[in-house]
Design goal:
heterodimer; A: mainly alpha; MetI-like fold; 2 domains; two-stranded antiparallel sheet; 2 strands; 77% helix; globular; B: 251 residues; Rossmann fold; 10 helices; 36% helix; 27% strand
C-alpha cells in the first residue's frame, strides 16, 4: 500500500529542512567561535602593524600583504592559462581520445593533495630553478594547484552557452575567434568567475604548499624573490607552535572576513556585469 | 532579369541520408523567391548551403555547384566569413545576442571594423527603419534585446542582418512563431527591401508565399518539383503534386 502522499511530502520537507539547517548551522557555529575568540584582538593596530617576538606581539600586516599578493598573482597567472585551455578543449578540438586524456589529466590533478604540489614546488622551483623560498615559487606552485579547478569550471561554463548564439554570430560574419571572445566568453563569465572564486579560497586558505615554497618569513615581501607568509600560514604556526592563541584567532577572524569580502565584492561585480545585458 | 544565384546539380547528404537530390535552380536579382514544401523537403538545408552555414553541421557531404554572381561559393578557396556578410540570414526562431538593441545591430558592422560613432548610429537607425522597428525602439536602444517581444525580436534579427549590407537575404520561416500583426510588418518590410536585395523566403505557409513572393519553388523530399513565377505556380501549376500542396491536400 502506498503511504499517504501528504504525510510523505511533509516528512521529506521537514527532513530536507533539517539537513539544510544542520549544514548552515555548522558554518554559523564555526564563524561564531572565530568571531567570539578573535574579535577582542582585532583592531586597527593589529591589522596595520608588524609582528614582534615571532608574532606574540604586534600585528599581522605583512601576512595580509603576503596573502593578497599570493592570491592575486596566482589568479592572474592561472586565469588566462585555465580559460585558454578550456576554450581549446571546448571550441577548437573535436571530442577525441586526445581531449579525453587531457580531461582525465586535469581531473586527476584536481584530486592531488596540496602537500604534493608543495613538495613538487619545493623541489622544482625552490631548489632546481634556485628561486629559493620566495613569493614567485609560491605563486607558481599555487597557480599549478588551482589550474584544474579553473579549467573544469570554465569548460562547463563555456559548454553551457547555447549553440544558437554561436550560430547567430557566425551568420553575422564573425570568425571563430570573434565569436569566442565577443559572444561565448561574455556569456560564460559568471561560471568562470565561480571557478576563480573557488580558487581564491584555496589560495588564501592553503598552508602546506605555501610553507614549502614561499617559506614563512615574517618580513613584508617587497619583491617576487622575497619569502613571506600568508595569514593561513601565520595562523598555523602561531597555533601549532603554541606562540599565541589570541593572535591566532585574531588572524583567523581577519582571514574569514576577507574571504567573505572578496566573495561579496566579486558577486556584486558579476551581477553588475550581467544586469547590463539581461 | 538577371540571375543572382545559380544552383546546379546540388546534392547534400548527411552520412548516408540524402537530403537534396540534385537541385538546379536560378534565383533572380531583386526579387523575393519563395521556397516552399512540407518539412523534410530540404528547404532549410538548401539555404544553409548558400550561406555555407552547413559547414557547422557534421558529416555533411556536398556535391554540385552554387554560383553567386558567377563565382562558385563551394570552391575550397571561398572566404566563408566574407560570404556570410554578403549573404545574410534570418532564422526561424529569433535569437538576439544577450546585449542591447543597439549593440545587436552594431555587432556585424563593428566586426567589419566600423568604429566611427556617427557611422554606427546611421547604420543602426537605417537598419531598424528598414525592418519597420525604429519607431517602437528608438527611445530605448540601450535596453537589452532580450526584453523585446517575439515579433520585435524577429524584426531586430532582420535589422541586424540588414546592417551587414548584404546582397542576399535568406529567411528561414521567419514568421513561424509570430502573430499576424508582426507577420504583416515583416512582410511589408520584405516587399520594400527587394528593391535593394535578393531575397529568398523559406516557408511552409503557402498563403504567405502567394502574398509576397515573385517566384516560387516547390520542393518535395529533396527534389525541386516545380519552379515558376508565383502567379503562374499558384494559378496554373503544371504538376499535380504542386497543385495538391497548394490546395492543402498534404504537407
Amino acid at each position: 500500500m502506498r503511504i499517504n502522499p501528504r504525510f510523505t511530502n511533509k516528512f521529506v520537507q521537514i527532513g530536507l529542512n533539517l539537513q539544510a539547517f544542520f549544514t548552515v548551522g555548522i558554518l554559523v557555529i564555526i564563524v561564531a567561535i572565530i568571531c567570539f575568540k578573535g574579535l577582542p584582538y582585532v583592531n586597527f593596530e593589529f591589522i596595520f602593524s608588524y609582528p614582534e617576538d615571532m608574532g606574540r606581539l604586534g600585528g599581522i600586516f605583512p601576512s595580509i600583504v603576503g596573502t593578497i599578493l599570493l592570491a592575486l598573482l596566482s589568479i592572474l597567472f592561472a586565469t588566462p592559462l585555465g580559460v585558454g585551455t578550456a576554450i581549446f578543449l571546448t571550441e577548437y578540438t573535436k571530442e577525441s581520445k586526445f581531449t579525453k586524456i587531457i580531461r582525465f589529466g586535469v581531473e586527476s590533478l584536481a584530486g592531488i593533495p596540496s602537500i604534493l604540489y608543495g613538495l613538487f614546488g619545493f623541489i622544482f622551483f625552490v631548489i632546481k630553478l634556485r628561486m629559493g623560498w620566495s613569493l614567485l615559487a609560491g605563486v607558481l606552485t599555487i597557480t599549478i594547484m588551482i589550474l584544474p579547478t579553473i579549467i573544469r569550471t570554465s569548460e562547463e561554463a563555456i559548454k553551457a552557452v547555447p549553440r544558437n548564439l554561436r550560430i547567430v554570430s557566425y551568420s553575422l560574419s564573425a570568425t571563430k575567434w570573434e565569436t569566442v571572445t565577443k559572444v561565448v566568453l561574455p556569456s560564460a563569465i559568471p561560471g568562470i568567475l565561480t571557478g576563480i572564486m573557488l580558487s581564491v579560497g584555496r589560495a588564501v586558505g592553503e598552508t602546506a604548499a605555501v610553507i614549502f615554497t614561499m617559506g614563512s618569513s615574517l618580513r613584508l615581501p617587497t619583491s617576487l624573490f622575497d619569502s613571506g607568509r600568508t595569514m593561513a600560514v601565520h595562523f598555523y604556526i602561531l597555533a601549532r607552535e603554541g606562540i599565541s592563541m589570541e593572535k591566532a584567532y585574531g588572524t583567523a577572524l581577519v582571514l574569514v572576513v576577507s574571504i567573505l569580502l572578496i566573495n561579496v565584492v566579486a558577486y556584486y561585480l558579476m551581477n553588475k556585469a550581467i544586469s547590463k545585458y539581461s | 532579369m538577371s540571375t543572382k544565384i545559380a544552383i546546379s546539380g546540388l546534392r547534400v547528404a548527411f552520412s548516408k541520408n540524402e537530403i537534396l537530390k540534385g537541385i538546379t535552380i536560378d534565383v533572380h536579382r531583386n526579387t523575393i523567391t519563395g521556397f516552399m514544401g512540407p518539412s523534410g523537403s530540404g528547404k532549410t538545408t538548401l539555404i544553409s548551403v548558400i550561406n555555407r552555414m552547413i559547414d557547422f553541421e557534421e558529416n555533411a557531404h556536398i556535391d554540385g555547384e552554387v554560383h553567386i554572381d558567377g563565382h562558385n561559393i563551394l570552391d575550397g578557396g571561398q572566404n566563408t566569413v566574407e560570404l556570410r556578410r554578403r549573404v545574410g540570414t534570418v532564422f526561424a526562431v529569433p535569437i538576439p545576442l544577450p546585449r542591447s538593441i543597439y549593440e545587436n545591430i552594431a555587432y556585424g558592422p563593428r566586426l567589419r571594423g566600423i568604429g566611427d560613432r556617427i557611422m554606427l548610429h546611421y547604420i543602426v537607425e537605417d537598419s531598424l527603419k528598414k525592418a519597420f522597428l525604429w519607431d517602437e525602439v528608438k527611445d530605448r536602444l540601450s535596453m537589452s534585446a532580450l526584453k523585446l517581444s517575439g515579433g520585435q525580436q524577429q524584426r531586430l534579427c532582420l535589422a541586424r542582418t540588414l546592417a551587414l549590407k548584404p546582397e542576399i537575404i535568406l529567411l528561414d520561416e521567419p514568421c513561424s512563431g509570430l502573430d499576424p500583426i508582426s507577420t504583416a510588418k515583416i512582410e511589408d518590410a520584405l516587399s520594400e527591401l527587394k528593391k535593394d536585395f535578393t531575397i529568398i523566403l523559406v516557408s511552409n505557409n503557402t498563403k504567405q508565399i502567394a502574398r509576397i513572393t515573385d517566384f516560387s519553388a516547390f520542393f518535395y523530399l529533396g527534389e525541386l518539383i516545380e519552379y515558376d513565377t508565383t502567379e503562374r505556380l499558384f494559378t496554373k501549376p503544371s504538376v499535380k503534386k504542386t497543385e495538391d500542396y497548394i490546395q492543402g491536400k498534404f504537407g
